[in-house]
Hints:
The structure holds 2 protein chains of 2 kinds. Helices cover about 0% and strands about 45% of the residues of chain A. By secondary structure, chain A is an all-beta fold. In chain B, strands 2, 4, 5, 9, 10 and 11 form a 6-stranded mixed beta sheet that branches. In chain B, strands 1-3-8-7-6 form a 5-stranded antiparallel beta sheet, with no helix packed on it. The chains are: A mainly beta, B mainly beta.
Amino acid sequence: GAGVSQSPSNKVTEKGKDVELRCDPISGHTALYWYRQRLGQGLEFLIYFQGNSAPDKSGLPSDRFSAERTGESVSTLTIQRTQQEDSAVYLCASSLVRSANEQFFGPGTRLTVL
Amino acid sequence: DQQVKQNSPSLSVQEGRISILNCDYTNSMFDYFLWYKKYPAEGPTFLISISSIKDKNEDGRFTVFLNKSAKHLSLHIVPSQPGDSAVYFCAASGSMYSGGGADGLTFGKGTHLIIQP
């Protein structure tokens, strides 16, 4: 079956604009995770969903970031009033259950804020 | 402050030899460790993991060693093959079943392994 997909693959935006990143997890996976990878850095955990609920949003970098998930499927990560420091690859992962080693990653969305 | 450290940004190894990638961690609450492999323009893929109750886990050409007292783990690849050229991320979790809980997985910065023919 299909793996985790993300869209767009690349996004270039101007500072101050809002962007929306989409993740389609593997069908049937109840857990979904968002990570960010800045240039030369490791993956930084942002938020995870169990079903449609995000129990803890404290990993989001600022209140300009929000995420939602519907139908225990698609998730969107929204960044409002983008800043240059938001430039990164945003990775989504899903897992059948909330398990550390069964996270399947998508190819990521490369966001560039000019 | 980084809780998972991979101090070698890159490593070059000759094909057929052993590749050893190192990882250090500072958080003593971590009890599950993973290695992910990443090719350009693709997401990371899970490679191998180890629980803190073990000191070694082997899967084919890949072996992970854990030294809890030193808070150090390493990934051995033997023999190294050209297809092993990729970025390898070390990651840690507070629990095998929690996905790291609210903190997800904590990743190192990665080591770019280059296998030379």
